[in-house]
């Protein structure tokens, strides 16, 4: 009987820990669509490494989330919708780009504020975009260049 009680208590403790983890994970992200955010859009040539839920950062601080990624059939660009924290008011000449956390890290979306006195309104489009740069493609261009050939993009 004592063994059964110990097994039941151990099982209850594991279940309580699992429930606590699920609640923490569900409520851990304070930036969600709606509430304290406003929408912005951007169109990228490539969104490789980015998905719905990816971080949008400003100066390394998470200030938003990617809420939607769709292919634009007219331009063949990826249209992204962003939920940006209401406390962040971006100038209308700001840029948005896809950055990498390093060679082995993941990608995130980075905001680079401009200098305009006018701010982006909710639903506006950030027009200055830079898509993902594929590290593999860059390496293949570098390795594929012959020793006498100039490296693409390098100064003469």
Which segments are poorly predicted (pLDDT under 50) over 5 or more consecutive residues?
A: 28-34
Could you give a short account of the major beta sheet? 8 strands, mixed
Number of strands: 8
Can you list the strand order of the major beta sheet?
7-1-4-3-2-6-5-8
Average pLDDT for all residues: 79
N-to-C terminal Cα separation, in Å?
83 Å
The count of helical stretches stands at 2
How big a fraction of the residues is strand? 25-35%
What is the general shape? extended
Structural class: alpha/beta
Helix content: 10-25%
**Total of domains:** 2
User: What does the radius of gyration come to?
Assistant: 22 Å
Helix/strand order: HEEEEEEEEH
Structure description:
There is one protein chain. This protein is of the alpha/beta class and 156 residues long. The protein has 2 domains: 1-30; 37-141, no CATH class. It has 2 helices and 8 strands. The chain has helices at residues 2-27, 135-144, and strands spanning 37-44, 55-58, 61-71, 78-85, 95-100, 107-112, 125-126, 128-130. The radius of gyration is 22 Å and the shape is extended.
Provide a compact summary of the structure:
It is built from 2 helices and 8 strands; from the N terminus they run H-E-E-E-E-E-E-E-E-H.
Notable features of this structure?
about 30% strand; 8 strands; extended; about 160 residues; 8-stranded mixed β-sheet; alpha/beta
Layout of secondary structure:
Layout: H1 2-27, E1 37-44, E2 55-58, E3 61-71, E4 78-85, E5 95-100, E6 107-112, E7 125-126, E8 128-130, H2 135-144
Parallel strand pairs: 1-7, 2-6, 5-8
Antiparallel strand pairs: 1-4, 2-3, 3-4, 5-6
